[in-house]
Amino acid sequence: MNERTWHTSSYSGAQGDCVEVSEGLIIAVRDTRNRELGHLGFTASEWTALLGALDSK
Q1: What residues does the DUF397 domain cover (predicted)?
Q2: Are 41 and 26 in contact (CB under 8 A)?
């Protein structure tokens, strides 16, 4: 089994609205408060596009 290493995203707010990220072949994102619900997976190009869209806001 391949264990993921998770860290709080730098895009998370200081108000506790946190997401955690795990980098790898697929970038995984999960809600810190609801880890048991699983995660979303993104390819590198999808992740780059998402971050680019967030930066433009």
Answers
A1: 5-54
A2: yes
Q: Where are the domains of the chain?
A: 7-55
- Mean pLDDT along residues 2-15: 78
* C-alpha pair distances (Å), 8 with each of 1, 15, 16: 23, 13, 11
Q: What is the DSSP string of 1-56?
A: --PPP-EE-TTS-TTS--EEEE-SSSEEEEEGGGGGG--EEE-HHHHHHHHHHHHT
Q: Report long-range pairs for 8-12 (Cβ below 8 Å, ≥24 apart).
A: 8/32, 11/51, 11/54
The whole-angstrom separation of Cα 41 and Cα 57 is 22
